[in-house]
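Pilot study result, target chain (354 residues):
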Amino acid sequence: MKYCNEERIRRRYEEFWARENETPLLQVIAPKDGARWDKAPRAPERLADRWLDTEYVLKQNRCILENTAYVGEAFPMFFANFGPDILGAIFGCEIEFGQDTSWALHAADCIGELPPVRFDENNRWYRRMMERTEALLEDSRGEYAVGNNDFHTGLDALVSMIGPEQLCVDLLGEADAVKARLRECAQAYRQVYLRENALIRSKQGFSTNWMGHYGVQNWYVTSCDFSALISPEMFDEFALPYLAEELEMLEGSIYHLDGKDALRHLPRLLSLKKLDGIQWVYGAGAPSARHWIDVLKQIQAAGKCIEIAVEKDDVKPILESLKPQGLLLKAFTATESEAEELYRFVTGYKGGRE
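Predicted structure:
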């Protein structure tokens, strides 16, 4: 890749996945010194076109590339981003676009009214995703990585189609119908993921996705944001079996654990032998990374990798408390020089651990 040392990146991530890295991996992204954001392409007037106009998106990506510093184990990556409800749209709902995100327009009022979920290669959102992915691969020419889409599977896919409140109701009153749709979602998602991944792997010899990690193996993020609304017993019944099935088709995986209300499911996640790691997202307004050392130690004790976003004041306490093997820190800084300074501190850290 043009904007990083890919050979070094590959070696570092191979060590990370094997839990053999002697220093933590650190991804730092910052604006380049002298960045010229005034050179960004003019945005289309219609909000949806800022997401759907591929020519505009490619130009915007190029502007980001030219003005961003990728420090440490960070590398440039783009994917066919239509927002977090793309899988639900492929399964039958619609998407409405905002300035910075998008959301689903539900396909049914309840699980009983939801048609069977089937993979349809003629679905317009699936076609858009594949066409955008092809366009990214052609534009990249190996200068940046192209990743798999942001797929929200299982219960999260049902949230896209009927909404979280109704899904809570249906878990209690229509459990069998929910499980039937979950089985269909799992089968259809397998087709979506494998087809997009095959397209990407045919043009580049590694896997990545919205999380931004490098893997010579086929790896992906697993998640269930809806789990914040349910008990561990419901998680066992309605999420864990489908998550385990998802892991079977992957060679590497990191679970996106989002927020303190989902933290009660951590012991069950750590029991999954095929799960490689946990991304702990403490959430906006919550105490930052250094305040979750006990959680991070629990993850390491189970032999799993960790990814966590850090602020500058978090770094030393984490280095003092955690093993470097399988540890990846992610940060954003205001300047390129701050990014380089943080990287030098992490790679040169010689202090002891508790």
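One observation from the pilot: DSSP finds 14 helices and eleven strands in the chain. A full batch analysis is planned for the follow-on phase.
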